[in-house]
Amino acid sequence: MSQELSVITDEQVEILLADLLEHYGYDFTGYSKASIKRRILRLYSLDKQVSFAEFRYTINNDTAYFKRFVEQITVNVTEMFRDPGFFKTLRDVVLPKLGTYPFIRIWLAGCSTGEEAYSISIILKELNLLHKSLIYATDLNPVVLEKAAQGMFAMSQMKQYSENYILSGGAKDFSSYYTANYSLAKFSEDLKSRLIFSTHNLVSDHSFNEFQLILCRNVLIYFDRDLQHKVLNLFDESLEGLGYLALGSKETLDFSPLSKNYKRVPAEKIWRKVG
Amino acid sequence: MKACEALIIGGSAGSLDVLLKVLPGLSAALSFPIIIVVHRKHGADSLLPELLSGRTSLIVKEIDEKEPILAGTIYVAPSDYHTLIEKDKSFSLDYSEKINYSRPAIDATFQTAAEVYRTKLVCLLLSGSNSDGVNGLISVKAWGGITAIQDPATAQVSYMPQQAAIHAKIDYTLRIEDMTEFINLLS
After folding, report:
1. What is the gyration radius of the CA atoms in chain A, in angstroms?
2. pTM, entire model
C-alpha cells in the first residue's frame, strides 16, 4: 500500500458496505472502520482497479469477484497453536475439566483456514478425548472453510508450528500428525474425524447448539463495541453453565454486562460461565 | 509550528536505547499523546511499557483495543498486532498479514493516523534495519503532517531513517540529544 492519499474515501467505504448488505446480505457495517478500509484499499491496489465506480460495479455484478472481495476484506491470518500458553491452559486446565462430561461440544467461531481446529483436535487426541468430542468450526467465508476441510497447510510453516506445539505442552513428535506432500503437510484423517466445518455469520446468524467450550480469537477486535456486545450475547446463549469462553489475547469480556456471570481463568483470556 | 494532536514514534533495531534516553526529559504536561510502535519479539509484551514507564512521570501503557486516545499518555503498540487509528481517535488492533515482515507495522499506524490527524500529526522514525515506516511517512506528508527522522549518523542501525530520507520528504532530522526538546516544543 504505497498510495499517498487514499484513493477511496470513508464515504465510499460506507457505500460499498451498504451495497454488500443490500445485494448479498453480508453486514459489515458494525466492523471497525480503519481495518476494513485498509483491507479495501489493499484489494483495490492488488487488483489494479482503476476507478471506484468500476470497482463498485464489479463487486455488485460479478459474483466471483464478490467472493474474492469478501475473502480479501476479512482477515484470515491464523496459525497452529498460536499463543502456546493459551493452548497449554486448554490442555492442562480446561479440557481435563470437560473430560469428565460424557460428550464435549466445542464451537470454534471464525475458524478461518482451520489451523486452530486441527490444533484443538491434536490436544483432544492426546488427552484421549477426541472420540467423544465434536468441534464445530465455523466461518462466514465459504472459501476458507473449503481450505480448512482439506487439512493441508504449508510445509514451510511446520517448523514454527512444531515449536508452538512443544511450547504448548505437546510431547509427541509433531511430524507424526502429518504426511509431507511436496510443499504441503497433510494432516491425518483421524484428526478431521470429529471436525465439522460450516458457514456461520456471527453478525446475522443465531445460536445453533449448546456448547461447553466456545473459542473465538481475534475476531471481536474487528467489531465495534455494539457488535461485540451482540456477539458476546450470542456466545452466552450458546454456552452451557460452567462452560468456557476463550477470546484472543487482546480481547476481553470486562466491558460486557455479562462479565458478572463469568470467572476468569488466571493469566489467560478464558472465562468460565458461573452465573 | 501547527498544534500537534498526536506524536507517533516508530522504531526497530537500535531504537529502544533512543527511547530510554529521550523519555526522561519529557515535560509532564504534554498536550498530546505519544504512540510508540517498535518492532520486537512476540511474547515480550509486558516488559516494554514497564521499562519505559521507569523513565518518565507520564502514564505509559500498552494499547487496549478500542481504547480512546488521550493527551499526556504514552501508548505502546502491543507486539504481534497492527495498531490502527480510528476516525473517532481511538485505537483498533488488527491481526492481518505482516507488512515489511513486521507486525506491528509502523506503516499501518502512520498511514491510518495520517488521514485522521492530518496537519496535526507528527511522526518520528528512529533507528532500524528495514524500511517499515517509509511509506507511512510519505502518507503523513501527503495529508499535511510533519515528518521527522533520527539523524542516520546517530542511529545504531541507520538503514530505516536513511530510506526515509531518500524516499519521503523529511521536515526534521534530529540527533538523539535534540529529540526531547523537539517533543516538548510540540506542546
Report:
1. 20
2. 0.94
